[in-house]
């Protein structure tokens, strides 16, 4: 991956111009590298079917970690365990020293793990700004009463949140769309609104569920550039479940490969790309042709 590919506004993207300063969070405090996200021996069983079988991997701080595998490999199950939607039958998921296993999704989110959805989950008539403001909910300090009574403190806080939404909108390339209904935007931009809403939570870990699924080639490139920019500019750890091998190869620092619920390989994109077990399971081709195919997909 070249530097330009990693940066929004670079050759492959042109998505976003301004990075919000990494040190300027909603609190104005200095941000620290996120703790590692450690998945240890996670098993998930559904009525006799083992969807995940003792899977372990670590998402290193500030890295993009892709989870890939053929259909039914267990990627979505893994994603759902990380976001708290599914409870692991056994094993553990930790953010630093904090155990996440068994926490409800809103508790996981409150710990700074934001997610996007494979299918769009935007309020249909809300503007882009209001949709993104939803992501600020957990950071809102003014209580119901202060907001309802329109106290100056609540008004000031609301202004600060809107300003931050503006910065993040610029970062993901939506600055010109803030007042438009999110539902009226092209699909690729709606997905960026979702990404922006997740970033508005000021997460330390971002879980992306097939972020480029259903996009045109141009939208894929723009979105990949934004994701690369998030990693570069904000230092957030990113877990990426994605079918598009080109995007995975371009964005990921590390890849975990699942097949029939088992982790069959892990390493850098180059390592897994030439791993015979991966080629057999995932690509079903000879290592030579698999590598060629992935390289071709990675070429914009
Ligand atoms: N809620 C559930 N109840 C029963 N079985 C499930 C459930 N969710 C997933 N499975 C099964 O677990 C296995 C793994 O599914 P999962 O959706 O995690 O795979 P995946 O890698 O995300 O597949 P795809 O790429 O097709 O989305 C599959 O056999 C699937 O049918």
UniProtKB/TrEMBL annotation:
This protein's record includes keyword Cell membrane: no
Sorted UniProt keywords: ATP-binding, Nucleotide-binding, Transport
Transport keyword on record: yes
MF term (GO), any: ATP binding
Region annotation (Disordered) ranges: 1-38
Domain of life: Bacteria
Alphabetical list of SUPFAM superfamilies matching this protein: P-loop containing nucleoside triphosphate hydrolases
Residue ranges with Basic and acidic residues bias: 19-32
InterPro entries: ABC_AA/LPS_Transport, ABC_transporter-like_ATP-bd, BCA_ABC_TP_C, P-loop_NTPase
Domain ABC transporter, chain residue ranges per copy: 37-285
Protein name, as recorded: ABC transporter ATP-binding protein
Organism whose genome encodes this protein: Streptomyces camponoticapitis
């Amino acid at each position: 991956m070249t530097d330009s590919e990693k940066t929004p506004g670079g050759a492959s993207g042109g998505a976003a111009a301004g990075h919000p300063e990494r040190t300027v969070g909603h609190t104005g405090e200095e941000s620290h590298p996120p703790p590692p996200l450690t998945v240890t021996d996670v098993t998930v069983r559904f009525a006799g079917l083992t969807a995940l079988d003792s899977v372990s991997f670590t998402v290193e701080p500030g890295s993009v970690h892709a989870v890939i595998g053929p259909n039914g490999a267990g990627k979505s199950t893994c994603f759902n365990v990380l976001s708290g939607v599914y409870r692991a039958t056994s094993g553990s998921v930790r953010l630093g020293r904090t155990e996440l296993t068994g926490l409800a999704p809103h508790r996981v989110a409150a710990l700074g793990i934001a997610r996007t959805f494979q299918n769009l989950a935007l309020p249909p008539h809300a503007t882009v700004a209001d949709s993104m403001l939803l992501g600020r909910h957990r950071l809102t300090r003014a209580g119901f009463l202060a907001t309802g009574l329109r106290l100056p403190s609540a008004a000031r806080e609301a202004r600060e949140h809107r300003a931050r939404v503006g910065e993040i909108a610029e970062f993901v390339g939506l600055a010109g769309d803030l007042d438009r209904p999110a539902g009226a935007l092209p699909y690729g931009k709606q997905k960026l609104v979702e990404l922006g809403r997740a970033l508005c939570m000021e997460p330390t870990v971002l879980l992306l569920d097939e972020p480029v699924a259903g996009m045109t080639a141009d939208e894929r490139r723009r979105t990949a550039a934004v994701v690369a920019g998030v990693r570069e500019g904000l230092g957030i750890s990113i877990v990426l479940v994605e079918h598009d091998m080109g995007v995975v190869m371009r964005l990921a620092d590390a890849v975990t490969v699942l097949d029939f619920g088992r982790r069959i390989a892990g390493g850098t994109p180059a390592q897994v790309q030439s791993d015979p077990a991966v080629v057999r399971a995932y690509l079903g081709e000879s290592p030579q042709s698999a590598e060629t195919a992935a390289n071709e997909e990675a070429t914009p």
